[in-house]
Every structure is written in C-alpha cells, then in structure tokens.
Design a protein that fits this description.
The protein is about 95% helix and about 0% strand. By secondary structure, the protein is mainly α. The relative contact order is 0.04.
C-alpha cells in the first residue's frame, strides 16, 4: 500500500460524505418547503378572511357613520353661514 492508495481512499470517502450531506440537505430543504407552503396557505386564508371582514365593516359601519358625519357637518356649516349673514346685516344697520 503506497501513498496513492490512501489518496484514492480519502477521495472516495470524502465523495461519499459530501454525497450524503447533499442528500441530507436536499431532504431538509424539501421538508422545510412543505412546511412553509402550508404556513403560507394558512396565511393566505387568514388574509382573505380579514379582507372580507374589513369589507363588511366598511360597508356596514364606516359608510353610514361617514354619511351621518357629513350630514351633521353640512348642517353646522349651513347654520354658520346663516349666522354670519345675519350678524353682518345687524352690524351694518347699527353702524
């Protein structure tokens, strides 16, 4: 047994070790991919549910409140305009 035989033995053993490591990493990557895919599917389902809930809340709660606030604001602005109009006339008559 000369040194060339040991060199070849080291090359073969390191090749087997590298092959086993690559196969192990590939298996771990596949398992991680499957787990991540299921998590992403769950997140997508949750996002869809939240999107539907916010749409319903917007339609049923926010829009009527916005309309009510706009009505109240319009009434307040109308009252303010009329009060300014009458105050200016009163001040013009007195002066």
């Amino acid at each position: 047994m000369d040194i060339a035989w040991f060199r070849d033995l080291v090359i073969v053993i390191s090749g087997l070790v590298v092959t086993c490591v690559v196969v192990f990493i590939a298996i771990l990557a596949y398992l991680l991919y499957n787990r991540a895919r299921s998590v992403l599917n769950s997140v997508e389902a949750i996002a869809t549910t939240v999107r539907e809930i916010t749409s319903v809340v917007k339609d049923e709660v926010v829009n009527p409140i916005v309309q009510f606030v706009a009505l109240i604001r319009g009434i307040c602005q109308g009252v303010d305009i009329f009060s300014r109009f009458f105050k200016k006339q009163e001040g013009g008559r007195d002066g």
